[in-house]
């Protein structure tokens, strides 16, 4: 995996030059033309990611087309040493997806049982233009973008993953929220036939898995609805066919296999907050200064790692995205609102 990454401090929107981006397997020719109106993401000048070792998936034709039409490539804060892409095998083999079991290898073993085609998402609540939307129709009006983001789990491991998807903001705008919409609530599919973890009587989760964001967090340009990674569609274990990616928050906010997006007035109760409110809050912003009651959040184990090379790195406030998102929390006590 060859990738050239500049430091965040080296990068400005004006540095993002048009250059052919080449992803060997997918005819992935896209010009980096900038980062969109109003976007101030640190972008990478040139990056050549080789996904030739990533196995072929089984994407429907419309998704193949969207993927090969990806034109934007924003690489967010990165350190050349630390932030090399996590190998696909680690990103797709070490997962949290409790619908398929609690062991990190369970999702890769069992998520094939999930039928992701066709798929639709209900957009409802405080919107003028809601309804059930086929995934293809949800994706069609938007340009696919590739975003390379850090993913920091609350359990103190982390990865660097190249996602493919569309800004959540675009989907929300099309739904035309009413003036009462203050939060966005997300739900994962419930289907014990397809999701063996939902059949377990030992599960501590009251299905569906639920997550939520404040409306301004949901509208933030970093917030992505991912439909792919590593130049292909999402593997089931990573949340196919549609998952949220909120890179400055702990991984549990990035809800997988979404079937419902609701604009709501009140702050929703999310799954982990419901299970252990002392340990997991609504905000879940990555913060090295606010420890989990049972472990430190000051450092993280960057995958891949081994017993002999533990690869422990320092955790950064907002997972390294403070320049982009800290203003969302001005005046908010991050210790109380963990
Ligand atoms: N979404 C659902 N529906 N169910 C889950 O168990 N786990 C979360 C999040 N999204 C989870 C989920 C947690 S704890 C993390 S860290 C990330 O997914 C892990 O994403 P990954 O397996 O793609 O690395």
Can you describe what's shown?
- By secondary structure, the chain is α+β, with helices and mostly antiparallel strands.
- It has a single domain (19-329), classed as Alpha-Beta Complex (Sulfite Oxidase, Chain A, domain 2).
- The chain has helices spanning 61-68, 88-91, 106-110, 135-139, 168-175, 215-218, 271-275, 322-325, and strands at residues 20-21, 30-31, 72-75, 120-125, 131-134, 145-152, 157-167, 183-188, 210-214, 224-229, 232-233, 243-245, 258-264, 299-302, 312-314.
- Strands 3, 6, 7, 10, 11, 12, 14 and 15 form an eight-stranded mixed β-sheet that branches. A five-stranded mixed β-sheet has the order 5-4-13-8-9.
- β4 and β5 form a beta hairpin.
- The radius of gyration is 19 Å and the shape is globular.
- The two termini are 35 Å apart.
- The model is unreliable at 1-47 (pLDDT under 50).
- The chain binds ligand MTE.
- The site of ligand MTE has 16 residues, from loops.
Our estimate of the beta-strand percent is 15-25%
Sheet with the most strands, sense and barrel status: 8 strands, mixed
Low-confidence stretches: 1-47
Relative helix content: 10-25%
CATH topology title: Sulfite Oxidase, Chain A, domain 2
Query: What is Rg?
Result: 19 Å
Under the CATH scheme, the architecture is: Alpha-Beta Complex
What is the 3D form?
A: globular
Number of helices in the DSSP assignment: 8
Going by CATH, the homologous superfamily would be Oxidoreductase, molybdopterin-binding domain
DSSP E strands, number: 15
Mean pLDDT: 87
Strand and helix order: EEHEHHEEHEEHEEHEEEEHEEH
Protein name: Protein-methionine-sulfoxide reductase catalytic subunit MsrP
EC number: 1.8.5.-
Pfam families: Oxidored_molyb
Keywords: Metal-binding, Molybdenum, Oxidoreductase, Signal
